[in-house]
Structure formats: C-alpha cells, structure tokens
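pinned: reference chain
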Amino acid sequence: MAYVQSEMVNQWLVVGFRSERLTDPLTVQTIGQELSPLISDLPAKGQLVINFDGVESVSSQVIGLLIGLREQIGRKKGKLVLCKLSKQVLNLMRVTKLDRQFTFTDDLTTLIGTQPTAGGRIQSLIPSSREVQWVN
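pinned: its structure tokens
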C-alpha cells in the first residue's frame, strides 16, 4: 500500500499522507522509501510542501525523517514547508525546538499559488483554505 500522495503544482512538489497516524515503524520506513525518489528527482532549488492535513499523530521516527528531508532539500538550495500540522504534532515540534528549523503554514492554497481543481488528484491534498495560524 502506498502511504504517500504527491503532485507537482506550480513548481511545488506537494506531498500528503494516506494515514492519520504515522507511528508504526514499518509505515514510517515505507514513507521514507516512497519519498526518497521524489526528493532525488527534485531539481536544484526545488520546492517541497508536506501536507499533514488529517495526520493526528507522528512518531519520533517521522521527526527524524523530516530532519533528513530538510537536509536533503538544503543541499539542493531548495525550500521545505510543513503544512496543516495538528495541534499535537505542532506541540511536538515546539517542545523539541524544531519549530525554529522549519517553515510552517496552514494555507496550502496561498503557498502554492492556486486553487484546487475540481476532480483533480491534488484536491485531496488541498482541503478548503483556512486562516494561516503562523508562518516561521
């Protein structure tokens, strides 16, 4: 089963997840394996947004995965944005002080510069626009 959905939209690679809980070690390992070729294929200065909409909890393994992705994107001089984190996940980022290392938004539509298309695959990754809670 694929756990990652992805779509290129206006120069952004938009990635979302098909699971509410990213806590099972095997699931997280599979997510890492699914993300690896997507990140490798990103061009220099590539832009990646990871949409956590619908994800309620993550394990420390996911945090490690995010740190690794940030480093990979940084080597490409790209941009990584985390989107629509649940309160629990956002609190975890704050407690670990990783909120200082990442950029966050709650408004995916504004970030990527487009509205969802009717019937498009990306629509499942871009729910209705909500007010931005905070951007680092």
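why pinned: Strands lie at 4-9, 12-17, 21-22, 47-51, 57-58, 79-83, 103-105. DSSP finds four helices and seven strands in the chain.
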